Amino acid sequence: MSEYQNLLVAIDPNQDDQPALRRAVYIVQRNGGRIKAFLPIYDLSYDMTTLLSPEERDAMRKGVIAQRCAWIKQQARYYLEAGIDIEVKVVWHNRPYEAIIREVVSGGHDLLLKMAHQNDKFESLIFTPLDWQLLRKCPCPVWMVKDKVWPEQGSVVVGVNLSNEESYHDALNLKLVSLTQDLAKRIVKDPAIHLVSAYPVAPINIAIELPDFDPNTYNNALRGQHLIAMKELRQQFSIGEEYTHVYEGLPEKVIPEVCGELNAGVVVLGIIGRTGISAAFLGNTAEHVIDHLKCDLLAVKPDGFVCPIDTSDDD
C-alpha cells in the first residue's frame, strides 16, 4: 500500500496560483513526505530556427528552463520558507503527458496531483486533453484538484461497480476502498467515507420485444443483487450501512448527485485506462462520471495495469 510520501505536482504554466501544489502541501503537512513541482515545457521556435547553432539553441533552452524554475520557486516561496520539502524540476519535452508519466516512473512517485479547470457557469470540472492522457495512462493514482477550499465537514465518496459483468471489478472495488480508508486516515480528521453504486434500469426495447418480460421484477432483482454485493463489500471494511448508497440510474448521473448531497471533498473512482479501439467500443464508465463532477477526483488504476508509455528511453 502506498504511503503517499513521494508526491509529484504537475504545475500549470498558465497561471500563478497552483491549487494542486496547495493540495500537495496540505497532504504533506498531515502525512509527511516530499513534493516535486514538475513542469515540462517546449517551444517549437527554438528548434526551428536555422540562425542559431545547436550549442546556441541548447543554451537558449537552458535559459528558458532556468527562468521557469525561478518562477515556480517564487510561487512556492511561502511553502519553502515554512520548511516544506519541495523540489523544482523543469524539463524540455514536446509531449507533456509523456514527460509527466516518465517522471512518475523514474522518480518512484506514489501520487500525481494536477489542477482541473472549472466551468464557472456549471461549477463542473473541465478536463483538458493532457488531463485525459494522465487519467488513462499514469500508473500511480492521479488527484485532479479543483480550485476550491476543501469543504467544511467534507466527505469522501468512493464510486464502486457492483455488477458481476467483469471479474476485475471485485478486486478494484477492494483496492479503492482500502486505498481511500488509508489516505483519509492520513490527511482528514474523522472522515466520513461513503460507498456509492448505480445500477441500470431495464432497457425499454426488451419490454417491448418480450411481452412476458416484467421490468419491475427485473429492476427489483437487480437492486437486490447490488444491495447484497454492497453489504458484502462494506462489511469487509467495517463500514456502516448508513454510509452506503445504491441507486437506480446511470453512474454519470447518480455519483455526481450523491457527491453534491454529501458535500464531498473528493470522489475516488477506478479507471481501467482503456485507449484506442477498446475505449471506442467498450467505453470508459468512469470518464462519463468525471464529466459531471463538481469536486476533486482521485483516479486509481487496477492492479496489473500496464502503462502504455515507454519509460525506458528518457530522451
TrEMBL record:
The reply to whether Cytoplasm figures as a keyword in the UniProt entry is: yes
- Sorted alphabetically, which keywords does the UniProt record give? Cytoplasm
Subcellular location(s) of the protein: Cytoplasm
Q: Which GO terms describe its cellular component?
A: cytoplasm
Residues forming the UspA domain are 4-146, 222-301
One Pfam family it belongs to: Usp
InterPro entries, per database record: UspA
Q: What CDD domains does this protein's entry cite?
A: USP-E_repeat1, USP-E_repeat2
Cited SUPFAM superfamilies: Adenine nucleotide alpha hydrolases-like
Please give the family membership noted in the entry: Belongs to the universal stress protein A family.
Write the protein's name: Universal stress protein E
